[in-house]
Design goal:
Elements lengths: L11 E7 L5 H12 L4 E3 L7 E9 L6 H5 L3 E9 L1 E3 L8 E4 L6 H7 L5 E5 L8 E2 L2 E2 H6 L9 E15 L2 E8 L5 H11 L4 E11 L2 E2 L4 E2 H7 L3 H4 L14 E3 L2 H8 L4 E2 L3 H10 L6 E6 L2 E8 L3 E7 L3
Length: 310
């Protein structure tokens, strides 16, 4: 006899404005408990010192988390010139100092090399694994190690403000895997003055934006109420960049059974042409206005990748 799952079958996305001081896992636990949800996960970790957009998936939406994490991200961050720290943020001890302070023209002239596809080395205090161990555990244990560079993409990086000689604020638009702390560290090195992050706020993850977010305090004030559930977004919100194709109920049922659906009819050929699909593309199959499954286009058919049981 199957064990009954604890909690309620909640499905959808919540855009949480995570506060400073909580890990993403701690924030997730509090929200999951508030909704009494059977299953929940988040779409992209934020460090305890960072605030902002933390997409939280409930139920069947957890099957789309990987697609949410692939989305472009936006950050606002502030760095302090003149100091390098162990962790590249305010948590670590200062390991190097400089009296040099760059001006606006110098800063803006240094930004172009950090835009586009760049090679970036993750911070030593990061969750990157090295021979099965987390880098931050090795660093805390005093182990001498080197991390390999990674190729990441920065779509835009602009100087937003210069509040004083010691600090500068930036607006960042980037792809998956970019470390803001590494960006600050490397920018400080390029300008010959060292730097570390003092404040970080994520304002968007793919289709999830700051405008649609709700603070943890506001959410907890709503409690387990209809008003709290009104904050939930549809599962397909995370699939904003993925093409959608409407299917019949019979075809949707086939996908739910793990069977492929043929696209050889003239009707589907025309619709596939309109979607400009290529073999291997993942699309969202819809029926009666609801997502049925994430499917892979195989040329003459659709094969189920993740079935959504709604």
């Amino acid at each position: 006899m199957a064990r009954k799952k604890k909690g309620d079958p909640v499905h959808g996305w919540l855009v949480l404005d995570k506060p400073v001081g909580l890990t993403s896992t701690q924030a997730l636990s509090r929200v999951k408990r508030l909704f009494n949800a059977q299953k929940a996960g988040h779409g992209g970790t934020l460090d305890p010192l960072a605030s902002g957009v933390l997409p939280i998936a409930f139920g069947e939406a957890t099957k789309t988390v990987s697609y949410a994490m692939e989305g472009a991200k936006r950050y606002l961050f502030t760095l302090r010139w003149g100091q390098a720290t162990e962790t590249d943020d305010t948590e670590g001890a200062v390991v190097a100092e400089s009296l040099e302070r760059p001006g606006r023209a110098e800063i803006e002239a240094a930004l172009p090399p950090f835009i586009g596809e760049i090679e970036q080395t993750p911070p030593r205090y990061s969750a990157v694994k090295l021979q099965g161990e987390r880098a931050y555990d090795l660093a805390r244990g005093g182990v001498d190690f080197e991390l390999k560079t990674r190729r990441v993409e920065v779509f835009g990086l602009t100087l937003a403000d210069l509040p004083d000689a010691d600090h500068a604020a930036f607006d960042l638009h980037c792809g998956k895997g970019v470390y803001v702390r590494s960006l600050a560290r490397d920018l400080g090195e390029r300008l010959g003055c060292h730097a570390h992050v003092t404040a970080l706020r994520r304002t968007a993850v793919g289709a999830f934006t700051e405008k649609a977010s709700i603070s943890l305090d506001s959410l907890e004030a709503l409690g387990h109420s209809p008003a709290a559930f009104e904050q939930l977004l549809a599962i397909e919100t995370a699939l904003d960049d993925i093409p959608a194709l409407a299917l019949s109920e019979a075809e949707a049922l086939s996908l739910k059974r793990g069977q492929s659906v043929s696209l050889l009819s003239r009707l589907y050929k025309e619709r596939v042409t309109d979607l400009d699909l290529e073999v291997g593309d993942v699309i969202c199959a819809m029926a009666k206005g609801k997502p049925v499954a994430l499917v892979r286009y195989e040329g003459g058919s659709l094969s189920p990748v993740r079935v959504l049981n709604l």
